[in-house]
Amino acid sequence: MPRAGLAAGSSKVDIAIDLGNPLLNRTVDGFLKIGAVGACRVAAEDAFDCLQSGSVSKRKLEQTLKKMCKEGAYWGAVAGVYVGMEYGVERVRGQYDWKNALIGGIASGALISAASDNKGNKIAQDAITGGAIATAVEFINYLT
Amino acid sequence: MPRAGLAAGSSKVDIAIDLGNPLLNRTVDGFLKIGAVGACRVAAEDAFDCLQSGSVSKRKLEQTLKKMCKEGAYWGAVAGVYVGMEYGVERVRGQYDWKNALIGGIASGALISAASDNKGNKIAQDAITGGAIATAVEFINYLT
């Protein structure tokens, strides 16, 4: 079930959304969690920039917020597509191994590349890269 | 224990190396496995290129082989550094959660960036990106 939470000190807010379908639930969960990680990355990077330059302006804060939303949505979309694809492949194949990650990665790579207005060969290359990255990540899981 | 294998039809060759130290074992294992994935990516991409252009030359094969070695070594090195770092952090902290991935990712990002002749701010940015990617991957593991 997708959960999003905010914690400040000892107070905590938890939101859980149930969409009544495991595929949708996982996709939304992936979007929320990885989107938050992507947004945090931008926040950390821009905070570091502010520390370096020693100045904070309203305009800069607005820019950071916009960038956080944009990058968070992108990371979230990529993760959501991949998690949904892998779950779908797992259901169709009926077993769980690294080939799910490979197929899910290839499908996600092709889909995301096609959605970014790439054509022909570039889509195939991105599909191969997506499959390779997903397989590498799956192997690293078994190692750690 | 690091294992490398070749399988062709029903015959299989398995090589296992024991370096007598779990940290070294994991690092070498990560290098071999992820290096193989990186090399396969190049092979698949260049095979696709050959299919597209419809021609295979000796020079092109040599180029592909060189690129496979280079990219395999790079992917392997990145994975080895990350796996080693995460294991080290786990041993030092004494517990296993997503913070290990975050710290390991930050350390690996900084190390790899420094090794690629980057300076100052770029290293810090790469460290933040490394930490974010490692955290995102760790969250995806829990989802799938």
UniProtKB/TrEMBL annotation, chains A, B:
GO MF annotation: an example: amino acid transmembrane transporter activity
Top-level taxon of the source organism: Eukaryota
GO CC term (a single one): chloroplast outer membrane
Keywords: Membrane, Transmembrane, Transmembrane helix
Membrane topology recorded in Swiss-Prot or TrEMBL: Multi-pass membrane protein
GO biological process: protein import into chloroplast stroma
InterPro entries: Tim23-like (IPR045238)
Location of this chain's protein in the cell: Membrane
Protein name: Predicted protein
Record organism: Hordeum vulgare subsp. vulgare (Domesticated barley)
Lineage summary: Eukaryota, Viridiplantae, Streptophyta, Embryophyta, Tracheophyta
